[in-house]
Amino acid sequence: MAVWLFVFVVLAVLAILGSIEQFWFDETWLGVLASDQFILLITAGLLLCLLGWSLIPTSKLAKINRLLKAWLLASIVLLFVVRTLVAYVAYEMHTPNARYMVSADAHIHTLSDGIYDDILGTSFRQVATLHNIKPIIPSAHHPSTLKIYNPFGEFNPNPSIMSTQEDLDKLKSMEGMTVLLSANPNVTQADLSKLAKVQPAMRLAAEILITPIDKTPSASGFDTNQWLRTRHIHAQAKILSVGEIAPLEAESLAQRFYFRLEQFRHRLRTHFYQDWHKLSASQSQARAVSLSLMTGDRALIDKHTKELYQLAGISHLLAISGTHVLFLAVILSELVTFMTDKFAQRIYAHLPRWQIRMMVMVLASLVYALFTGFDVPAVRTVYLLIAAWLVRYLILPTGMISVLAWVALLMIWLDPYVLWQAGFWLSFIAVLLLMRYESKIDMTNETNQNQGQLIRRWLQFKQAVRLQFWLFFSMLPVSILLFGKVSIWGLVVNLFAIGLFGFVVVPINLIAGAVFGILPELSQLLWGVSSAVLYWLHDFLYFGLSSQIGSLGAWLYAPFGMAGFLLSFMVVGLWILPNVLPRVLIILPLVAMIFLGLPKQIPHFKLIILPSDTPNISQMLLSYHNANQQKYWLILNDLGAKSLRANHTQTLTDQLYRLGAAQHGIDGIIVQSPSAIFLPVVGQLAKALPVYRFWQAGNHEPLANIHHTPCRAGLHWQSEGIGIKALTGWHEIGDERVQHCEIEVLADLPLNTQNLIEDKFEPNFGETDTDTSNQTQLIISTNREPMLWQLWDMLCLSDEELKLVTPAGYHSVWLSTTHAADASHVKANLDTPQLLYLDK
Fold first, then answer.
1. pLDDT on residue 147
2. In sequence order, what E strands does 512-665 have?
């Protein structure tokens, strides 16, 4: 029952979370959903439903019992849906819908996510709650230098008059909101050096710019909105100036205890950050990983180390997992029971030994989970220990898989947004797989008792390798769904990395942290050993994985869409949960996946817009497929970008792999603009995947590892059913305004334009009938300089290759931008072109 209930609840809650933005709540319902009494009411309803389920007797009235269970199951799922609505309303009550410039007191409860360092240029990031929020009125000190929407100033042109009631309501609603404070020393002009002194249990007076959370996922697929919501952060806030920093008084004993834990984490960070600027990059990152494995503090780990762990497939080892919590809990419970055996055996007359052990394990795991940030894997371990204690104490007739499902349901009830956390899925699925595999290991060990020691060691090694393959392939669907790709090197590296971290590095760090307050010299010695081990591990990984051989084909991408993921989950579920449905049914999704993975023979001609986090550029993938061939062309444009993001090439490579273009190979790359901004990107793409030709507008030194051709007027490429020709581009003239390369594509298939924006009201061109022909003439024109088409006008009179007309039987499509130069006289030569825009 628990497993099926978990499945139905997850589907219902995810459906609500994905569509809840479309809901509308009136004031009455908002008041009901936001009240504490309503939460208590639905919680009581849930407990009554569960109690009713347990009281249904097993009798001959099987049909009535099934109906009652079905009704209770539906009621429980409905209560979870209502709980999700309550969580959404509670979150949205403090969420701003515009940018505001305010002064406020930021209450710091936890350790910061980033350190403000002027020397290294690292950014400050800190989760904080805002209080005493006041509007900043434009004045001589704050003129309109910040071009932002500030309603408190705009609604009140007279600073001596108080803001309107609407403004005051906004201030009141933001009181107590949680924000992610940020400050970058590389871009700010204000003196924010005080931020280096901020630590937990402090109050920071600051002027900040509050910005709503962007709900558009990044080009890499990372969803900032979901990530911040899972942390209950309502907005992002940029620090403009810093005022007084003062201690923050705890409001309760529990909060005082929590502050002490966070301050101890900060003390450890300060200890590790000593002489940080004198260390090499390798030495500092070995320290940073040591600190992360002990306290869960990943603020000191830089981007390169995170990418190295991702490439090695061991980034999960950087997080505080159940292994860390369980190790410390077991050690402390053994120590307590040992001391009890020696000095206080009379306690056993009142409490059994196993209860004392479980009590210590639960308390130790709870404290350590709080100490490391209360991440999902650590919380799951605490709840599982409590559940196991209750099952044994009450002698409940339930299996551990059901207990795991009940724990997951409890976490969903407490926070429905936990379903958006990757750690939730990876943690519970890993535990489920280990539970299923443990029974097989126990059966194998019983049969190998009579074997020799050498043979038993060999069999244990085979079991470890088999377990790693079992975990890798069973978690492959959910890993690719969550992260978009999975490193194949994880199969190999995890074989020794899990043991190295679990039996060497993590115990050393935990022991060093436990004795730090008593024997700091011993702690420093142990941390030195841990850092040395990690230093050599990082060097080994850099040497083995960052080379040409190590990085080639290191990533595994999904060869199918959402339907393939659902079928993969069905296969894994039927395999690891044979008691839910017959395992023979696994044949059905396997056959469906085989048919889904077969090459599709449907002809198509598509222009796919590739999103980017860099503004003022365009990236398009031209995909053509007929019965005999498949062609891919990548078309790039610089529309005024100053620079590209650091991860631009990797994000673009991932997008090409997900679309299946990289595996086939890119037949050509065209950079229409004469800018050199894309040259490094094309060079790196040519190393990562097959690229057969490269057309670049302007005069540039040719790239060494690719067939580089200047994109000039008249340059063309032809294949069966599709041809590409450059209409403009005269690199002989030393003026970039006439070096831009506009292109024409002729294809014998209709163009799929579902992701492009159409302008149906362009003057001088009537309505466009997109179904008049099955052949397409596509012109891509993004140039901003009118001189380019003026020169084309003069030259096309004497050059037949440059003339632009609509061939008989073709449908014309003109793709441009809103800032492109006027080309009405060129469009007049075409037969009622369909007008599409990249940015309108």
1. 42
2. 555-557, 604-609, 617-625, 630-638
239's CB contacts (< 8 A; 6+ apart) are: 124, 181, 182, 183, 188, 192, 195, 206, 207, 208
Same domain, 564 and 697: no
Q: How confident is the model at residue 298 (pLDDT cuts 50, 70, 90)?
A: very high
Question: Whose CA is closest to 476, among 583, 376, 563, 565?
Answer: 565
- Are residues 666 and 801 both part of a single domain? yes
Instruction: Estimate to the nearest angstrom the gap between the alpha carbon of 251 and the chain centroid.
Output: 35
- Given the structure tokens 């190999």, which residue do they identify? 492
How far, in Å, CA of 749 to CA of 90, rounded?
51
- The domain spanning residue 691 has which CATH number? 3.60.15
The tokens for 425 are 């899925």
**Position of tokens 């997008």?**
655
Angle at Cα 403 formed by Cα 398 and Cα 404, nearest 5°? 145
For residue 157, pLDDT beyond 60 = no
For residue 572, give Cα distances in angstroms to 247, 470, 569, 592: 52, 11, 5, 14
CB 786 within 8 A of CB 751: no
pTM of the model: 0.84
Question: Do 569 and 636 belong together in one domain?
Answer: no
State yes or no: pLDDT of 149 exceeds 50: no
Distance CA 556, CA 662 (A): 12
β-strand pairing of 668-671 with 124-135? unpaired
pLDDT at 143: 45
User: Per the domain annotation, does 289 fall within a domain?
Assistant: no
Per the DSSP assignment, residues forming a β-bridge with 202 are: 108, 247
187 and 240 housed in the same domain: yes
State yes or no: pLDDT of 581 exceeds 70: no
For residue 746, what is the DSSP state? E
Alpha helices in 603-740 (DSSP H): 648-658, 661-664, 679-688
pLDDT in tens, 758-769: 665 444 444 444
Q: Which residue has the tokens 């949205």?
A: 92
Tokens of 10: 């997850």
Cα–Cα distances in Å, from 820 out to 305, 612, 758, 830? Answer: 42, 20, 15, 18
From 220, 249, 278, give the residue that closes a domain: 249
Q: At 837, which helix (H) or strand (E)?
A: strand 834-837
How many domains in the chain?
A: 5
Report the alpha-carbon distance of residue 162 to residue 154 in Å, rounded.
Answer: 12
Q: What is the DSSP string of 151-214?
A: HHHHS-SSTTSPPPHHHHHHHHHHTT-EEEEEE-TTT--S--GGGGG--SSEEEEEEEEEEPPP
Q: Is the pLDDT at 569 greater than 90, yes or no?
A: no
Q: How confident is the model at residue 736 (pLDDT cuts 50, 70, 90)?
A: confident
213-244 burial, b at 16+ Cβ within 10 Å, e below that, comes to beeeeebbeeebebebbbeebbbbbbbbebee
If we measure between CA atoms, which residue out of 755, 753, 784 comes closest to residue 768?
Answer: 753
Give me the phi and psi of 777, to 5 degrees please: -115, 115
Rounded CA separation 637/617 (Å) = 6
Of residues 764, 827, 763, the one with CA closest to residue 792: 827
Give the pLDDT of residue 413.
95
For 340, the domain range is: 320-441
**Which three-class secondary structure state does DSSP give residue 495?**
helix
pLDDT exceeds cutoff 80 at 1: no
**Strands 775-780, 604-609: parallel, antiparallel or unpaired by DSSP?**
unpaired
How far the first Cα of the chain sits from its last, in Å, is 52
Q: Are 825 and 766 in contact (CB under 8 A)?
A: no
Do the Cβ atoms of 663 and 808 come closer than 8 Å?
A: no
Element of type H or E holding 266: helix 253-272
